[in-house]
């Protein structure tokens, strides 16, 4: 009997829901986060942060602090200023960064100005509160309107080379003649929009523990990039990277806040070296608002021109992003908005505005989260101006070729996403007239927007050890920032080795393991799963070659390419099979494979760069020969109370096409979490700045609003099946940030539909709705 009698094999376990392999460890407290790592006899650090936003430190009064029993050391620029070099910019982007203890200079409010180290947390905290600092204060520039705010067109910025910033070779995408096309368009939209500063607030506070042993430093700090932490910290404190190890096995949320090295790490490492004793820091929630990065406030001028049938003729998008005084850090989202729809004439420009604030950085969905807000709001405004359904407007401007260079998208199922979402959401029930739908005292509004995020993938390496049992171990410096990354990696190995997932162990979060790049930019699943699949294929080949060479075995003389690993066995086309343990016996000792993965579009030294702590990834929106994005459709129903103006999200449906889904359980969780954060970014979150002092005023969770369960309705996530064989071997496009994008516009569009009030400045708050004619207050 031939094939039909052969083993019935599952082709793949990809796409089957799998709970997190570390879920039990996390909920039972077994999972070891950085602050949980045992070190012996640690001293405790507490940060002193700047009371002013701009100026110089004239002197310190440390007597009272030193008098607290148990105080061991106080670091200031006066005693450690020369021990650390410049801090790298966030994510390696954007010219220079601010300093902290390197000089008397104060760059922003809440900057670290001293580190008090003591025997106990209580003593360090008490002493820190007694540190008095004399300042020579200068008037700070708080935000866009402030005197002294300096605007730079990104295209004009010249960092003099070598800065590693995106402004090196920054090009503002443009094509055709947008001004002329705008002037002759039948219908135009010309509006300004803004998004506020927002701060990532992962549940796990920002902690750092440093321990030196025989000149070797181990840093326990949640990071999205073990090798980035290792190498950039080593450089900053002027030691050999070989002497630094980064360990962060579990991470309680990151969202970009743990993407690049921030100020505190060097000072804790130096404090531990000075004391010759481990030092632990757990910064407070309030300090977390100024000692790491944040999502900068943005402004936008967005213009659309269309013909009467709704086809876009012109698109012009100029953006402004806040940054710190010495930095040109930016996220620069016109690379996406210029390419999202078919349009023959596109003009874009990005500016940075230098202020006396900390340097911003990645926060979930940079840059699409802020930059899609103006475009997707303006598309809704255009739909109203045309008297057209907003989904129909997106449908007729859908394209399989991006407009700037005419390159084809590797896959784009935007219209299919809108079809799937609108069917589930019952979009048809929408009466397009603003203020026309009611439910008792609630004005009901339905809004939609496009979601999109580039499909990025980075270089990675891994070690696979296959031993009798059979059991597989995957070792790689991958980071699971809460995404379910370790589970996706284990699923990939289980699938490719034909083992139950319970027989695969993952060791990650440690720079002594093979480098696996940055867990950010929605790259990590594509990078890590592809390298693991490659290692597994190398293992299969080794086993198969040994099996066919064994004269007395069931596979003697067979083609090694025809042997497969399934169900814990090695299986031939003829139906011959043997337990994997038996195949392993032919090799001396456990099978150990080291694999490297270099994706399309990454430079040949990409893996080495990853080991050197540099980002080595191909960005799907900007490749020379491919345009790769994930897409989605967001639909929101809001209720706005006719008497109070209160806005409640009543329903949220998102349909997403993000290439191959490794694990629908964690993928849906990622997308749902993204949508929730999108609701939050539209309705809740804003860090308020005192315009005079350039200080944040709502720096705790009591005042920085984030949604609670009562704010969030049932979220429906639809995975639109998609195969993309061009993006990478496994066809993964990435979904980590996709769910957040477009949400802010979808919510604002729904609020307009409910009330007739167009909110172009986020967040949407009751006071902005008070003039709505539909409200009877
Ligand atoms: Mo994410 S903002 O790419 O860490």
Would you kindly provide a written description of the structure presented here, covering whatever features stand out?
By secondary structure, the protein is an alpha+beta fold. A seven-stranded mixed sheet has the order 3-5-1-12-9-10-11, with helices on both faces. It has a five-stranded mixed sheet with strand order 7-15-14-13-8, sandwiched between helices. The N and C termini lie far apart (80 Å). The relative contact order is 0.14. Bound molecules: dioxothiomolybdenum(VI) ion.
List each distinct ligand once: dioxothiomolybdenum(VI) ion
In terms of per-residue confidence, which ranges show pLDDT below 50 for 5 or more consecutive residues? Answer: 1-9, 160-167
Terminal Cα separation, in Å?
80 Å
Oligomer description: single chain
Total E-strand runs: 31
Structural class: alpha+beta
Largest sheet properties: 7 strands, mixed
The helicity comes to: 10-25%
Shape by Cα distribution: globular
Strand order of the largest sheet: 3-5-1-12-9-10-11
Quote the average pLDDT.
95
Q: Compute the gyration radius: what is it? A: 27 Å
Topology:
Elements: H1 23-27, E1 43-49, E2 55-61, H2 63-66, E3 71-75, H3 77-80, E4 105-106, E5 112-118, H4 121-130, E6 132-137, E7 150-153, H5 178-184, E8 187-195, E9 207-213, E10 216-220, H6 226-236, E11 244-247, H7 263-275, E12 279-282, H8 288-291, E13 298-306, E14 312-324, H9 334-337, E15 346-355, H10 368-386, H11 390-396, H12 414-425, E16 437-439, E17 442-454, E18 457-458, E19 460-467, E20 471-475, H13 485-497, E21 504-507, H14 524-549, E22 564-566, E23 569-571, E24 577-579, H15 580-585, E25 591-597, H16 606-611, E26 617-618, E27 629-641, E28 647-657, H17 664-683, E29 689-690, E30 695-696, E31 715-719, H18 743-755
Parallel strand pairs: 1-12, 10-11, 14-15, 20-21, 28-31
Antiparallel strand pairs: 1-5, 2-4, 2-6, 3-5, 7-15, 8-13, 9-10, 9-12, 13-14, 16-17, 17-27, 18-26, 19-20, 19-25, 22-23, 23-24, 27-28, 29-30
Helix pairs in contact: 10-18, 13-14, 17-18
């Amino acid at each position: 009997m031939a094939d039909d009698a052969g083993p019935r094999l599952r082709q793949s376990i990809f796409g089957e829901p799998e709970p997190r392999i570390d879920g039990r460890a996390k909920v039972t407290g077994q999972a070891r986060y950085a602050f949980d790592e045992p070190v012996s006899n640690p001293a405790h650090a507490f940060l002193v942060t700047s009371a002013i936003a701009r100026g110089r430190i004239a002197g310190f009064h440390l007597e009272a602090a030193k008098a607290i029993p148990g105080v061991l050391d106080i670091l200031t620029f006066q005693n450690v200023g020369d021990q650390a070099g410049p801090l790298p910019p966030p994510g390696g982007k954007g010219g220079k960064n601010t300093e902290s203890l390197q000089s008397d200079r104060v760059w922003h409010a809440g900057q670290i100005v001293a580190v008090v180290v003591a025997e106990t947390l209580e003593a360090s905290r008490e002493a820190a509160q007694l540190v008095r600092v004399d300042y020579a204060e200068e008037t700070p520039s708080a935000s866009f309107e402030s005197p002294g705010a300096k605007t730079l067109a990104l295209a004009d910025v010249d960092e003099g080379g070598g800065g590693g910033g995106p402004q090196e070779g920054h090009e503002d995408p443009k094509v055709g003649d947008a001004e002329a096309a705008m002037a002759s368009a039948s219908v135009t939209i010309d509006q300004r929009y803004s998004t506020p500063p927002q701060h990532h607030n992962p549940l796990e506070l920002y902690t750092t523990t440093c321990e030196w042993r025989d000149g070797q430093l181990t840093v326990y700090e949640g990071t999205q990039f073990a090798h980035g932490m290792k190498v950039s910290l080593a450089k900053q404190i002027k030691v050999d990277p070989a002497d630094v190890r980064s360990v962060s096995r579990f991470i309680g949320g990151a969202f970009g806040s743990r993407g690049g090295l921030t100020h505190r790490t060097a000072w804790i490492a130096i404090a531990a070296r000075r004391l010759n004793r481990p030092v632990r820091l757990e910064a407070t929630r309030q300090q977390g608002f100024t000692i790491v990065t944040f999502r900068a406030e943005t402004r936008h001028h967005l213009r659309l021109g269309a013909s009467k049938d709704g086809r876009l003729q012109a698109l012009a998008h100029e953006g402004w992003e806040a940054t710190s005084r010495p930095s040109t850090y930016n996220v620069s989202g016109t690379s996406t908005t210029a390419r999202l729809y078919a349009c023959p004439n596109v003009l874009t420009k990005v500016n940075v505005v230098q202020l006396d604030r900390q340097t911003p950085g990645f926060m979930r969905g940079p840059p699409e989260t802020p930059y899609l807000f103006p475009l997707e709001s303006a598309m809704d405004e255009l739909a109203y101006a045309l008297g057209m359904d907003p989904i129909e407007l997106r449908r007729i401007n859908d394209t399989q070729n991006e407009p700037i260079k005419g390159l084809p998208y590797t896959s784009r199922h935007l219209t299919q996403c809108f079809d799937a979402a609108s069917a589930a959401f019952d979009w048809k029930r929408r009466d397009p007239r603003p203020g026309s739908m009611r439910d008792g005292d609630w004005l009901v509004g339905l809004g939609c927007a496009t979601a999109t995020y580039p499909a990025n993938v980075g270089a990675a390496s891994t070690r696979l050890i296959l031993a009798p049992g059979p059991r597989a171990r995957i070792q790689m410096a991958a980071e699971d920032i809460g995404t379910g990354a370790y589970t996706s990696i284990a699923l990939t190995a289980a699938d490719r080795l034909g083992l139950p997932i319970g027989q695969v162990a993952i060791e990650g979060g440690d720079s002594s393991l093979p480098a696996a790049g940055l867990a950010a930019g929605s790259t990590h699943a594509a990078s890590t799963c592809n390298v693991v699949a490659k290692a597994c294929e190398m293992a299969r080949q080794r086993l198969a070659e040994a099996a066919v060479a064994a004269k007395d075995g069931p596979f003697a003389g067979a083609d090694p390419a025809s042997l497969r690993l399934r169900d814990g066995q090695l299986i031939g086309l003829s139906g011959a099979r043997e337990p994997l343990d038996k195949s392993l016996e032919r090799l001396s000792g456990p099978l150990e494979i080291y694999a490297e993965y270099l994706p399309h579009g990454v430079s040949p030294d990409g893996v080495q760069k990853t080991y050197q702590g540099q980002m080595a990834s191909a960005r799907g929106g900007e490749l020379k020969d491919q345009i790769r994005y994930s897409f989605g459709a967001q639909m929101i129903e809001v209720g706005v109370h006719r008497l109070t103006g209160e806005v409640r999200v009543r329903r949220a449906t998102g349909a997403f096409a993000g290439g191959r889904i490794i694990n629908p359980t964690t993928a849906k969780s990622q997308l749902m979490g993204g949508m929730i954060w999108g609701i939050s970014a539209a309705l809740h979150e804003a860090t308020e700045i005192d315009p005079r002092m350039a200080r944040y005023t709502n720096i705790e969770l009591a005042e920085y609003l984030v949604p609670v369960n009562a704010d969030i309705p049932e979220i429906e996530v639809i995975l639109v099946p998609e195969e993309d064989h061009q993006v990478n071997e496994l066809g993964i496009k990435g979904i980590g940030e996709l769910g957040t994008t477009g949400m802010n516009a979808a919510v604002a569009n729904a609020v307009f539909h409910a009330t007739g009030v167009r909110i172009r400045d986020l967040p949407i708050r009751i006071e902005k709705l008070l003039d709505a004619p539909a409200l009877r207050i």
